[in-house]
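Retry 2 of 3 after timeout on previous attempt. Resubmitting structure tokens to design endpoint.
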């Protein structure tokens, strides 16, 4: 049986959770899901260059 869980955590808490489950081989798929979820949740614009015509302050919807 699979479950879907939503986690609300700080970056520090999330990284600690990943560190804890890193030593458990049977949780590798869970770890990968968490890493992928963390990447998808990052809505920062660090390193992005606005497209021509974009307001540099307003986020684009992608």
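Retry 2 succeeded. Sequence:
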């Amino acid at each position: 049986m699979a479950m879907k869980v939503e986690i609300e955590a700080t970056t520090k808490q999330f990284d600690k959770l990943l560190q804890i489950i890193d030593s458990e081989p049977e949780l590798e798929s869970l770890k990968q899901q968490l890493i992928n979820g963390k990447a998808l949740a990052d809505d920062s614009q660090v390193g992005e260059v606005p497209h021509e015509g974009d307001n540099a302050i307003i986020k684009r919807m992608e």
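Attempt log closed. Residues 29 and 56 are 37 Å apart (CA to CA).
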